[in-house]
Structures are given as structure tokens and as C-alpha cells.
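MODEL INPUT / OUTPUT PAIR
PAIR INDEX: 1
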Amino acid sequence: MALITRHSRCKICGELIGSEPVVGFPHFVRNHKDPLFMFTDAPFHRTCFLAHPLREQVEKRRRMSILVRDWDISVYGKISEAKVRVLHRPLEHFRISRSVYSAGEDDGGSMRACICYVLRGACSYSFGPEELIEIHESQFAHLPEGSYEFRVLGEQPIELILVWTPPKESQVVSGPSGSD
């Protein structure tokens, strides 16, 4: 996120921010031609932002925005199923599944919110017309619940791990049974 000081200028009106209430967003739009790009990494007077005609679209996109992150090899070592499992403990609180898809394969449907780790290859997920992401080898993303389309990118197969939290009623409870 951009450093905002009282000497920064509002990206909407061009005036100094001064001591007025400020709104700012981290980088959430990649396409420079997208009309919402002007709201990425920039400060605004709160009153300017609230009155802007694209405000509702910005808020909707920010709610939907999915951040793809790089696996930190310096902390965790090379990404693997075993290392992903270590991050999600206790195991009875998570469901972890490994899948391999062929090059060019696609899929779709409805999913629970989950984390997708790509061990090798690359894929794209789309969640409606406004949200398309790519996840490449050694990257991961928190994916939302709902309808999706999935596609393997490139000429190589993809290997990925999905991690989600099952409903409380299906989680295994460890420890002593309820005896008095």
C-alpha cells in the first residue's frame, strides 16, 4: 500500500490530503486499462471516495479480490504435500486433497472456500466475469466459496493441493470421551 502523508494528493480531486479522513487501498487491480485501476495503491479524501460514481464497483471488487501469494521457500523449503500438511494442524480440523490434472483439462462447479497450493504446473480459476486468477507452481491462493471454472494452463499437467475446513459437525473431536 502506498505511504500516505498529509502532503499526499487525493487521486480524485488532486488536492492535498491534509488532515482530512483518508481512504486507501492496496494493489488490487492488475490491468492498467481497467477503470478501477486508479484506485490501486493511491490515497483519497474519504468524502471524494464516497461521492465517486465507481465507489460501489470498487467495494464489490475489493470484496472479491483474490490475492495469489508465493510460497516462501526461505522459510518452508520447497513446496510439497507434506509441508502443506504441516501448516494445517491439527489434521482433524482440515480436509486436504491432492489432485493431478492433464494439460488443457478444465472443470467447474461449486466449491467450499479453500486454499489452493500449486505444487507443479499452472492453472486458472474464474469466479464470474470479474474475477479471473492464475496460480503457478509454488504459489497459493485463498479461494472463495461458490461457482467456479478451472483450467490447466500450458503444456504440462498440474499437481495441486486443496485445503478446506469442514463444517463443525463433521470435524473429528480428539481427546477423552464424555465420561464423568
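PAIR INDEX: 2
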Amino acid sequence: MAASVGDWIGDANVLGASPERDRAGRIEETGIDFIPEAARDSRPANLAMVFFGGNLAFSVIVFGWLPIAFGLSWWSTVSASAIGLALGTLVTAPLALLGTRTGTNNTVSSGAHFGVTGRLVGSGLTLAFALAYAASAVWTSGDALVGAAHRLVGTPTGDGALAVGYALIAVEIAVVALYGHGTVVALQKIVVPLVGVLLLLGIPAFAGGFDAGHAGGGYVLGGFWPTWMLAVTVAAAGPLSYAPASATTPAASRAGATATAASCSPRAVASTSACSSRRCSAPSPRSRSPTPATPTSRISSLAPPAGTCCRSS
């Protein structure tokens, strides 16, 4: 049976659908369906605000605390963090280029290389990253909320208070995620300057307890270099966690605007890695006719050319 793009995206009419305008306060209904070019109204400034704002958080500050907790000195922590961030960024940054060709994020784009089944690896990693960051955000932000409330109004700091604090942060995360991209962008325009100022004020506030000469010691892995390499790995994990979503750019699609990979389309029928366990035959005459470029055709262009066929064993 001939396979076509429609086999992967279901009703091909969704490619021409006009989704509701993305705006704050409205629950985003767009899932994996394709968003037309005219509806991709995000801007580089929005992307910068979301990605930069996401790093002004206690959960990211943990990345700076861990090397010190591992036993490294201040300057060793700085060097390990700088090198780890650079390495992670160098590996992750080129992946953003996929978005301009596929109109979707890397998790969906990976279907062109690994097939629909293989794409589950990227989806699983994305879920793991999301859960890890959500857990660290709930832990650190909940503690900060309870501690601040105690100092300001004298509320308790026991397990019950912590449970309430964690629950409030978890609900907030879920609600903002449910409303989606438009709400996230709008909130970040408030959060980034506000939290940015607070973090800057933290410099003089904590300057009295800062010691750049901290020598470290008691290495968690028993020696300096193994512990330093662990710190480099931890730092690199930050940028790498963006890999599944890094291709979702304003030029390619707004957040959540995706189309599934056409891994058995005319230009993606060459290898089992592209077609996974799908059984496909030569392109149908209809598939050879000229068609406008779509995200699925761009995804297909990442796979080997037509002329051969992948079949399950």
C-alpha cells in the first residue's frame, strides 16, 4: 500500500486550518496540528523573553549551587560551569536550524530520522526534562515562598506549610502551562524585568557572605578532576535540556505549532531509520505532483531521497 503524508498527519485538511489567534488569557488549543505561515505571529523578542526568563529561577540557580556542594572551590565552579555551558550550547544551538526547515520542534522532526516509534525516545526525554525542571521548581520556589512568608508575616515553616507552598507552586505551573504560549509570553514580559531586578539586588544583599577564595574540599567523587568533570556535565545538561524544543523558533512556528513527520513520504522512504517499522512502497503518482512546501515536506527533506523503500522485517 502506498504511503503518503496523509498517513502520518491524518486528515490533510488540517494543514490549511486557521487556528485561533494565540493570545494571553486564552487556553491554547493547538496541539500537533500545523499552523499556517500567516498565523505564526511570534517574534524573536518573544522567544528571547521566554527562554531568558525561564533561566531567572531558583531551579536554575541550583546549577550554580551543585558544584560548590560537590566540593569545588569558587573559581573551579566558575570554570566548570563556563565550559559546561559552552559545550552544551555548541551541541544544542545547531539543532535550532531544523525548525526553519520543518516548521516544528525537534521531537516531531526526529520522526524523519528515527520513525514514529523512534520518535518516542525524544518524547520520553522531553517528558523527563519537563518533570525534572518542574520538580526542582516546586521544591526551590515552594521553600522560598514559605521562608519569605515566615519572615514577613510569621507563618509556620513546618511540613504542613511546605506542603501548601509546594501545592501552590505546582498549581501555578499547571495553570500557566494549560493556558499556553500566549499567556507564557505575556507573563514573562512582567517576570523578566521584575525578577531580573530582584536578582541584581541579591548581589549586595548576599555580598557579605560571599567568599571568592572558598577553597572547597571533600570532593564528592574523591578527587578534584572527577568532581570537576561532574560539574562540567551538570552545567552542560542545562542547554542540552532545550534540545527537544530548540527548533521551535518564531520564524518556524509558535510554541505548540507542529505537524507530525512524514517519514514514509516520497523523500523519506529510503531507510528503516526513517520509516521505523512502517511498511511502505514506491510513491504514488499523486505524491509526485508538485505541491506547496509544508512542514511535513520539509521534515521529509531531512531523510534520504526517494527510489528505495523501507519494509519491516
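PAIR 2 NOTE: Residues 111-153 form the longest helix (43 residues).
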